[in-house]
Design brief:
about 450 residues; alpha/beta; 17 helices; globular; 6-stranded parallel beta sheet
Length: about 450
């Protein structure tokens, strides 16, 4: 059901050589670019009509308007199961608590008397938030995208999610209800590359945005890559991943359940156990059998995900080696189920999010931990972070120097400008002072140019 990779014995290789030994899904965004390019160009030139036509082709339903009517959003909330509403409200409450603490404040540094640099944080003006709607329904992704944008102070928040044939061409009602709970009334029935292009270029129904965030399939990722520069993006999200670093103290029932919980997302989902315990590996393999048999989505998601090249049990000689492996892997979600799990977690360098101990499973983070579940995949955790308030802010430096403060440093600027063969840079400073005036500073004289 799941393969093994044995890295015990010899010293582990370093860097890329170790990464190449680890399981990973094939996710060729570059190859998908040529598929999405004509879609994006069509939306650029024909606007909403193209979005509607591509939606009919890919989602199997013809809609009259891309913009979701306000009454449909209100109705979805009114008809929402009270238990689901309560769970979403609690998810929102906890996410706000965490993300509110991420807000940046303006800070001024006095570099020299009369010379300051202030860094102020300004939210992007308008964002497009993508919420998938394929194999599963993700109202939780509405929460994870909207809350940090709102806490950052973004004024214009628009959500796009694919039209659903079952619901008359509207996005899934639970997604609409989540939007209503968050006060988002600008929602579009648009999916895939056409939704990203709609956000990037704008249409007669949807003004263009500055930034697009949110997970999606390979075509969403390819459209993000294609249009990056015209819009900012959070990341090119690939198949979801879980890695579990565990020793003999871990409960194989928990480990198997957590591997399955990630495998049920998609047949390309990755489920990886890294352990120094042969006994835990064998017990987890045995435990997978009855748990898989008892779950849903067995044949179309769970079994192919666990059996795929992207999933494996990786045996290592020690937890120290296990740490090297998980750092090389850079998992989207990393669970630490070891003795003294908090201390082990503190040694991890590369992960989208870390879940410490047996009572902090990834599923908690997906919904109600307060953390964000929009995280880097495909090893990108070695250089990228998950979605946060910071994702929606721009730091702007404000330079404010007095005449004396500029005069005091002019000779350094001139020296560096001439070292780079850019004399006009230095001349731009010298032009501000009368001939001989700079004699008072550093005892040197700069003739006026």
């Amino acid at each position: 059901m799941i393969s093994r990779i044995d890295l015990r014995g010899d010293a582990l290789p370093e860097g890329g050589a170790l990464r190449d030994l680890l399981p990973r899904a094939e996710f060729d965004v570059e190859a998908a670019l040529e598929t999405v390019r004509p879609i994006c160009e069509d939306v650029r030139h024909r606007g909403s009509a193209a979005v509607i036509e591509w939606g009919e082709k890919f989602d199997g339903v013809r809609i009259e308007s891309v913009r979701v009517p306000a009454e449909a959003i209100s109705r979805a909330l009114q008809e929402l199961d009270p238990a689901v509403r309560a769970a979403l409200e609690e998810s929102i409450r906890r996410a706000r608590l965490v993300h509110r603490e991420q807000r940046r404040t303006t800070h001024t540094t006095q570099v020299v008397p009369g010379g300051t640099v202030t860094e102020k944080w300004v939210p992007v003006e308008r964002v497009g938030l993508y919420v998938p709607g394929g194999r599963s329904v993700y109202p939780s992704s509405v929460v994870m995208n909207v809350v940090p944008a709102q806490e950052a102070g973004v004024e214009g928040v628009a959500v796009a999610s694919p039209p659903q044939k079952e619901f008359g061409g509207l996005p899934h009602p639970t997604i609409l209800a989540a939007c209503a709970l968050l006060g988002v009334d600008e929602v579009y029935a648009a999916g895939g590359a056409q939704a990203v292009a709609m956000f990037a270029y704008g249409t007669e129904d949807c003004p263009p945005v500055n930034l697009v965030t949110g997970p999606g399939n390979i075509y969403v990722a390819a459209a993000k890559r294609l249009l990056k520069g015209r819009i900012g993006i959070d990341a090119e999200a690939g198949p979801t991943e879980i890695a579990i670093l565990a020793d003999a103290t871990a409960d194989p029932v928990h480990v198997a359940a957590d591997l399955i919980s990630q495998a049920e997302h998609d047949p390309m989902a990755a489920a990886v156990l890294v352990t120094d315990s042969e006994e835990l590996a064998a017990a987890t393999e045995a435990e997978l059998v009855p748990q898989v048999a008892a779950t849903k989505h067995i044949k179309d998601r769970v079994e192919p995900a666990l059996a795929g090249r992207q999933s494996a049990i990786v045996l290592v000689s020690s937890i120290a080696d296990g740490l090297k492996v998980v750092d090389a892997y850079g998992a989207e979600h990393l669970e630490i189920q070891t003795a003294d799990a908090a201390a082990v977690a503190d040694r991890v360098r590369n992960a989208g999010a870390i879940f410490v101990g047996p009572w902090s499973p990834v599923s908690l983070g997906d919904y109600c931990a307060g953390s964000n579940h929009v995280l880097p995949t495909g090893g990108c955790a070695c250089h990228s972070s998950g979605l946060s308030v910071q994702s929606f802010l721009r730091g702007i430096h404000i330079v404010d120097y007095s005449r004396d403060a500029l005069a005091e440093v002019t000779h350094h600027v001139v020296t560096l400008a001439e070292a780079e063969d850019l004399p006009a840079h230095g001349a731009a400073l010298k032009a501000r002072f009368a001939e001989g005036e700079l004699d008072e500073h550093r005892g040197w004289k700069v003739p006026r140019q």
